[in-house]
Amino acid sequence: MNNETKILFPVEVLTLNGEAVEVSELKWPDAVAWLGQLGQGLAKYVGSTGRLGIDLGELTALVMDSAELSESLVLKSTGKPKEWLASISCGQFLAVLDTALKLNLSDDLLDRAKKIGARLAKLAPQARLTVAPISPDSTTSSSGKAGAVGISTDAPSDSSTCSPGEPTSGCEKSTA
Question: Are the beta carbons of 33 and 61 closer than 8 angstroms?
């Protein structure tokens, strides 16, 4: 196995109860789903300053949310059925979870995600959503009619612009 293959799909083997258990990096669709679950789970505990904070009264909910999230990661990264969890001890579960987290939240993967985010962020200041009518020459829909909304990377003349995701009522009129 060459280094490129190891980087693209790392696998570690653990021995549990005499059985070899392969723990692998999640496939893209599973990783996206799991990271979405993680984000939703953590969102409840992020304050207005963006810091993660937990009220002791929420500890039970956090543990329950974490258990479901942890089981999801363990099962997806091992390919085992949910019933398999009943055959392993708490310590064994934590060993598999630790390995799955190491592979799926590795420094390498997080660094790659940060680099991609930084590259995409460079595009964001230039992109604007045009909400004013666009001339028939510039955009046509599949029906052949002029489009009512378009995306431009330069300042449009005499049209309203918003950043993507921004409500149109707060947009400014541009006459550049």
Answer: no
Name the fold adopted by 3-123.
rbstp2171 (3.30.2220)
CA proximity to 26, closest of 109, 112, 108, 103: 103
Q: What does the block give as tokens for 5?
A: 């293959």
Please list the residues that pair with 174 across neighbouring strands. 159
Query: What per-residue confidence (pLDDT) applies to 2?
Result: 55
pTM exceeding the 0.85 threshold for the entire prediction: no
Q: Name the nearest CA neighbour of 154 among 132, 133, 140, 174.
A: 174
The DSSP call for residue 32 is H
Rounded CA separation 174/165 (Å): 18
Locate the domains of the chain by residue range.
3-123, 124-176
DSSP codes, 116-176: HHHHHHHHTTT-EEE-S---TTT-B-TTSPBPS-EEESSPPSSEEEE-TTS-GGGPEEE--
